[in-house]
Amino acid sequence: MIINKKVLKILVVFILTLTFISLVNLNGTGFNSRGEIANPLINSSLHQSGWDDGIALCSAEGDQGRVVGIPQACSDGFGGAIIVWGDERNGNRDIYAQHIDEMGRMLWALNGINVSSNINDEDDPQIISDGFGGAIIVWEIYISGSYDILAQRIASNGTSLWGNSPVIVCNAPAGQMMPKICSDNDGGAIITWHDDRNPPYNLYEIYA
Predict the structure, then answer these.
(1) Which of 3, 77, 115, 187 is 20 to 30 A from 38, comparing alpha carbons?
(2) Which CA distances in Å does 146 have to 59, 86, 173?
(3) Mean pLDDT score, 84-111
(4) For residue 140, which phi and psi values (nearest 5 degrees)?
(5) Residues whose CB falls within 8 Å of the CB of residue 28, separated by 6 or more in sequence, listed in order
C-alpha cells in the first residue's frame, strides 16, 4: 500500500500524541492551572509546602523592602536561599534576613533575624553567597548627614561571623552609597560604591 507524505505526517503526529498521553498517565505528570508541567509524584511535597502561592518571608509591623531597599537573595548552595531586606519594624530602618530551605521552610527566626540594628537609618542591602552555606551582606548607613558602608557575614545558622557589630567598609569624609558586591571565590567579597569624598562633592567617583 502506498501512503503519501501528507497521510504519513498525520500518522506520525497521531502516534507521538498517543505516546505522550501514555507517558502522562504512567508517570502521573499533568499540568497545573498556569499550564506548567507538573509531576505530583516528584513535586507533591513542594506543592504541599505552599510554594505554588508564595510564602511570606516577613509579615512584621512596618515597611519591609518597598522604601528601604528592595529585597535581595542569594543561593545557599543546597537548593535554598538567603534573603535580605530593609525593615522599619523598629521605627527606623534596619537590616533583616531570612534563610529558607528548598521546601520553603524558614530556618531562622520568625520574620527574620536582625543583621544590623542602629539608631541611624540603614538602607540598600546587597547580598552574595559566601560559598559555605552562608552569605555576605553589605549596605549603607546614614550618619551625621552622609552615608557610610557597612558589611557582615552570616553563617548558614544565622550567626554573625564578623563580630556582634558589622564591619566598617568605608567611613571616609562626605558620602559613600549604593554599594555593590561580588564574591572573591575564597569566602570573602569585593565591594564597590559611589563616593563623593573629593571636591566638588556633588560628583561621585567609584571606590572599592
Answers:
(1) 77
(2) 30, 18, 9
(3) 92
(4) -110, 150
(5) 39, 40, 41
Burial class (CB in 10 A: 0-12, 13-18, 19+), 122: buried
Q: Which pairs with CB-CB distance under 8 Å and at least 24 residues apart come from 39-43?
A: none
Encode pLDDT of 184-198 as tens digits: 999 999 999 999 988
Distance of alpha carbon 193 from alpha carbon 149, whole angstroms: 8
> What is the DSSP pairing of strand 135-143 with strand 146-154?
antiparallel
Q: Say if strands 94-100 and 113-116 run parallel, antiparallel, or are unpaired.
A: antiparallel
Domain ranges across the chain: 5-51, 55-207
Q: List Cα–Cα distances, 170 to 134, 136, 156, 165, 167, in angstroms.
A: 23, 16, 26, 15, 9
pLDDT at 16 over 90: no
Q: What is the mean pLDDT of residues 98-113?
A: 94
Say yes or no to pLDDT of 68 above 70: no
- Cα–Cα nearest to 58, from 96, 107, 104: 96
| Nearest one of 65, 128, 74, 67 to 96, comparing CA atoms | 65
Cα 48 to Cα 51: distance, rounded to the nearest angstrom = 8
